[in-house]
Amino acid sequence: MGAQLAPLPQRRMIVIMSKAKLYFSRNYNPRLAVAAARYLNSPVEFEFAAPFAPGQSEKFLKLNPNQRVPILVEGDKTLWEADAIACRLSQLANSDFWPMGDALPDVVRWISWGYTNFVRACDRVHFERVTKQRYGIGPVRQDQVESGLSEFASSAAILDERLGAADWLVGNRVTYADFRIACVLPFADLAGLPLKNFPRVEAWHARLMEIPAWRDPFAGLSAPELPPIRQSAG
Q1: Domain with 136 in it
Q2: Distance between CA atoms of residues 33 and 22, nearest Å
Q3: Would 111 be classed as within a structural domain?
Q4: Is residue 95 part of a domain?
Q5: What span, in angstroms and rounded, lies between the C-alpha atoms of 214 and 175?
Q6: Looking at the domain assignment, is residue 2 inside a domain?
Q7: pLDDT tier, 15 (very low <50, low <70, confident <90, very high otherwise)
Q8: What is the pTM of this model?
Protein backbone atom coordinates (compact mmCIF):
# COMPACT_ATOMS: atom_id res chain seq x y z
CA MET A 1 0.00 0.00 0.00
CA GLY A 2 1.88 3.06 -1.21
CA ALA A 3 1.69 6.40 0.51
CA GLN A 4 0.26 9.43 -1.24
CA LEU A 5 3.02 11.92 -0.50
CA ALA A 6 2.55 14.78 -2.94
CA PRO A 7 -0.22 17.37 -2.67
CA LEU A 8 -3.32 16.38 -4.55
CA PRO A 9 -3.47 17.79 -8.08
CA GLN A 10 -6.19 20.33 -8.55
CA ARG A 11 -9.16 19.06 -10.50
CA ARG A 12 -11.88 21.24 -11.93
CA MET A 13 -12.99 23.54 -9.12
CA ILE A 14 -16.69 23.26 -8.31
CA VAL A 15 -16.87 26.93 -7.39
CA ILE A 16 -14.37 29.66 -8.17
CA MET A 17 -13.18 31.05 -4.85
CA SER A 18 -13.06 34.83 -4.78
CA LYS A 19 -11.07 36.76 -2.21
CA ALA A 20 -10.71 33.67 -0.03
CA LYS A 21 -8.61 34.11 3.10
CA LEU A 22 -7.67 31.64 5.81
CA TYR A 23 -6.89 33.13 9.22
CA PHE A 24 -4.66 30.87 11.26
CA SER A 25 -2.20 30.52 14.13
CA ARG A 26 0.36 27.85 15.03
CA ASN A 27 -1.93 25.99 17.44
CA TYR A 28 -2.95 22.55 16.33
CA ASN A 29 -6.46 23.15 14.98
CA PRO A 30 -5.37 26.12 12.85
CA ARG A 31 -2.30 24.09 11.85
CA LEU A 32 -4.66 21.35 10.72
CA ALA A 33 -6.64 23.75 8.53
CA VAL A 34 -3.49 25.19 6.94
CA ALA A 35 -2.10 21.70 6.29
CA ALA A 36 -5.35 20.67 4.59
CA ALA A 37 -5.40 23.82 2.46
CA ARG A 38 -1.81 23.37 1.34
CA TYR A 39 -2.27 19.67 0.67
CA LEU A 40 -5.23 20.52 -1.57
CA ASN A 41 -3.37 23.40 -3.25
CA SER A 42 -6.30 25.59 -2.27
CA PRO A 43 -6.16 29.10 -3.80
CA VAL A 44 -6.47 30.94 -0.49
CA GLU A 45 -4.55 33.79 1.07
CA PHE A 46 -3.07 32.83 4.43
CA GLU A 47 -3.04 35.41 7.20
CA PHE A 48 -1.66 34.86 10.67
CA ALA A 49 -4.08 36.08 13.34
CA ALA A 50 -4.12 36.68 17.07
CA PRO A 51 -7.82 37.25 17.85
CA PHE A 52 -7.22 37.89 21.56
CA ALA A 53 -4.50 40.49 21.00
CA PRO A 54 -5.34 44.08 21.97
CA GLY A 55 -7.60 45.73 19.43
CA GLN A 56 -8.45 42.51 17.58
CA SER A 57 -11.55 41.27 19.39
CA GLU A 58 -14.12 43.35 17.48
CA LYS A 59 -12.82 42.19 14.10
CA PHE A 60 -12.70 38.50 14.97
CA LEU A 61 -15.94 38.34 16.91
CA LYS A 62 -17.67 39.39 13.69
CA LEU A 63 -16.00 36.50 11.88
CA ASN A 64 -16.40 33.87 14.60
CA PRO A 65 -18.49 34.29 17.77
CA ASN A 66 -15.95 32.06 19.55
CA GLN A 67 -13.21 34.57 18.67
CA ARG A 68 -10.89 31.77 17.55
CA VAL A 69 -9.07 30.61 14.44
CA PRO A 70 -9.07 28.99 11.95
CA ILE A 71 -11.55 31.04 9.99
CA LEU A 72 -12.12 30.81 6.22
CA VAL A 73 -13.50 33.97 4.63
CA GLU A 74 -14.88 33.35 1.16
CA GLY A 75 -16.35 36.46 -0.36
CA ASP A 76 -18.95 37.67 2.14
CA LYS A 77 -19.22 34.28 3.86
CA THR A 78 -17.25 33.01 6.83
CA LEU A 79 -16.69 29.45 7.97
CA TRP A 80 -15.04 28.42 11.23
CA GLU A 81 -13.92 25.10 12.72
CA ALA A 82 -11.07 23.16 11.10
CA ASP A 83 -13.22 20.19 10.06
CA ALA A 84 -15.77 22.37 8.28
CA ILE A 85 -13.01 24.35 6.55
CA ALA A 86 -11.26 21.18 5.36
CA CYS A 87 -14.57 19.80 4.08
CA ARG A 88 -15.28 23.02 2.18
CA LEU A 89 -11.81 23.23 0.64
CA SER A 90 -11.96 19.58 -0.41
CA GLN A 91 -15.39 20.19 -1.93
CA LEU A 92 -14.08 23.19 -3.86
CA ALA A 93 -11.11 21.18 -5.10
CA ASN A 94 -13.41 18.31 -6.11
CA SER A 95 -11.05 16.08 -4.15
CA ASP A 96 -11.43 12.72 -2.47
CA PHE A 97 -9.28 13.97 0.41
CA TRP A 98 -12.72 14.26 2.04
CA PRO A 99 -14.31 11.37 0.14
CA MET A 100 -17.98 11.17 -0.59
CA GLY A 101 -20.05 8.16 -1.55
CA ASP A 102 -19.61 4.89 0.31
CA ALA A 103 -16.44 6.04 2.09
CA LEU A 104 -18.06 9.09 3.72
CA PRO A 105 -19.57 7.34 6.79
CA ASP A 106 -16.20 5.74 7.54
CA VAL A 107 -14.45 9.11 7.35
CA VAL A 108 -17.05 10.70 9.63
CA ARG A 109 -16.73 7.79 12.05
CA TRP A 110 -12.97 8.21 12.43
CA ILE A 111 -13.20 12.01 12.66
CA SER A 112 -15.87 11.76 15.37
CA TRP A 113 -14.18 8.98 17.32
CA GLY A 114 -10.74 10.50 16.93
CA TYR A 115 -11.69 13.91 18.24
CA THR A 116 -13.72 12.55 21.15
CA ASN A 117 -11.11 10.02 22.24
CA PHE A 118 -7.57 10.21 20.87
CA VAL A 119 -7.32 13.97 20.29
CA ARG A 120 -8.93 14.91 23.62
CA ALA A 121 -6.65 12.54 25.51
CA CYS A 122 -3.57 14.00 23.84
CA ASP A 123 -4.85 17.52 24.38
CA ARG A 124 -5.34 16.94 28.10
CA VAL A 125 -1.69 15.99 28.49
CA HIS A 126 -0.49 18.72 26.14
CA PHE A 127 -2.48 21.38 27.98
CA GLU A 128 -0.90 20.50 31.32
CA ARG A 129 2.66 19.89 30.17
CA VAL A 130 2.94 22.41 27.35
CA THR A 131 0.19 25.05 27.03
CA LYS A 132 0.12 26.01 30.71
CA GLN A 133 3.88 26.25 30.76
CA ARG A 134 4.03 28.39 27.63
CA TYR A 135 1.65 30.95 29.03
CA GLY A 136 2.35 30.69 32.76
CA ILE A 137 -1.18 29.69 33.73
CA GLY A 138 -0.47 27.35 36.59
CA PRO A 139 1.36 24.21 37.66
CA VAL A 140 1.04 20.82 36.03
CA ARG A 141 -1.82 18.80 37.52
CA GLN A 142 -0.48 15.29 37.61
CA ASP A 143 -3.91 13.73 38.01
CA GLN A 144 -4.94 15.27 34.68
CA VAL A 145 -1.72 14.10 33.04
CA GLU A 146 -2.23 10.55 34.31
CA SER A 147 -5.88 10.54 33.22
CA GLY A 148 -4.92 11.82 29.77
CA LEU A 149 -2.14 9.27 29.38
CA SER A 150 -4.52 6.47 30.35
CA GLU A 151 -7.06 7.58 27.75
CA PHE A 152 -4.25 8.04 25.23
CA ALA A 153 -3.14 4.45 25.77
CA SER A 154 -6.62 2.98 25.31
CA SER A 155 -7.41 5.01 22.18
CA ALA A 156 -3.93 4.56 20.69
CA ALA A 157 -4.37 0.79 21.06
CA ILE A 158 -7.50 1.01 18.89
CA LEU A 159 -5.62 3.05 16.30
CA ASP A 160 -2.70 0.65 16.41
CA GLU A 161 -4.98 -2.28 15.69
CA ARG A 162 -6.64 -0.48 12.78
CA LEU A 163 -3.29 0.53 11.30
CA GLY A 164 -2.15 -3.08 11.36
CA ALA A 165 -4.52 -3.70 8.46
CA ALA A 166 -3.82 -0.61 6.33
CA ASP A 167 -1.44 2.32 5.93
CA TRP A 168 -4.28 4.82 6.27
CA LEU A 169 -7.53 4.94 8.22
CA VAL A 170 -9.93 4.96 5.26
CA GLY A 171 -9.17 3.35 1.93
CA ASN A 172 -5.71 3.09 0.44
CA ARG A 173 -4.61 6.72 0.59
CA VAL A 174 -4.44 9.54 3.07
CA THR A 175 -7.72 11.33 3.82
CA TYR A 176 -8.77 14.09 6.14
CA ALA A 177 -9.52 11.44 8.77
CA ASP A 178 -5.78 10.84 9.06
CA PHE A 179 -5.06 14.56 9.31
CA ARG A 180 -7.76 15.14 11.94
CA ILE A 181 -6.75 12.33 14.29
CA ALA A 182 -3.02 13.05 13.93
CA CYS A 183 -3.36 16.80 14.48
CA VAL A 184 -1.81 16.58 17.97
CA LEU A 185 1.09 14.32 17.01
CA PRO A 186 3.46 17.07 15.77
CA PHE A 187 3.40 18.18 19.43
CA ALA A 188 3.78 14.66 20.86
CA ASP A 189 7.44 14.98 21.84
CA LEU A 190 6.83 18.20 23.77
CA ALA A 191 3.88 16.62 25.57
CA GLY A 192 5.78 13.43 26.33
CA LEU A 193 3.24 11.15 24.66
CA PRO A 194 4.60 7.59 24.53
CA LEU A 195 4.19 6.91 20.81
CA LYS A 196 6.91 4.25 20.90
CA ASN A 197 4.50 2.02 22.81
CA PHE A 198 2.33 1.92 19.69
CA PRO A 199 4.63 1.17 16.75
CA ARG A 200 1.93 1.22 14.07
CA VAL A 201 0.70 4.62 15.21
CA GLU A 202 4.30 5.84 15.27
CA ALA A 203 4.86 4.52 11.73
CA TRP A 204 1.60 6.15 10.56
CA HIS A 205 2.77 9.45 11.98
CA ALA A 206 6.09 9.01 10.18
CA ARG A 207 4.22 8.47 6.89
CA LEU A 208 2.27 11.66 7.47
CA MET A 209 5.49 13.54 8.18
CA GLU A 210 6.70 12.60 4.69
CA ILE A 211 3.94 14.82 3.28
CA PRO A 212 5.38 18.36 2.96
CA ALA A 213 2.04 20.06 3.65
CA TRP A 214 1.76 18.13 6.91
CA ARG A 215 5.40 18.27 7.97
CA ASP A 216 5.65 22.06 7.67
CA PRO A 217 2.36 23.69 6.71
CA PHE A 218 3.75 27.13 7.59
CA ALA A 219 6.67 26.99 5.14
CA GLY A 220 6.99 30.37 3.44
CA LEU A 221 4.23 31.95 5.53
CA SER A 222 4.50 34.78 8.01
CA ALA A 223 3.77 32.83 11.17
CA PRO A 224 5.47 33.84 14.44
CA GLU A 225 6.66 30.95 16.57
CA LEU A 226 4.72 29.98 19.68
CA PRO A 227 6.12 31.31 22.97
CA PRO A 228 8.81 29.15 24.58
CA ILE A 229 7.92 26.87 27.45
CA ARG A 230 8.71 28.88 30.56
CA GLN A 231 9.46 26.09 32.97
CA SER A 232 9.88 22.35 33.21
CA ALA A 233 6.80 20.53 31.96
CA GLY A 234 6.99 18.06 34.86
Answers
A1: 101-212
A2: 8
A3: yes
A4: no
A5: 12
A6: no
A7: low
A8: 0.90
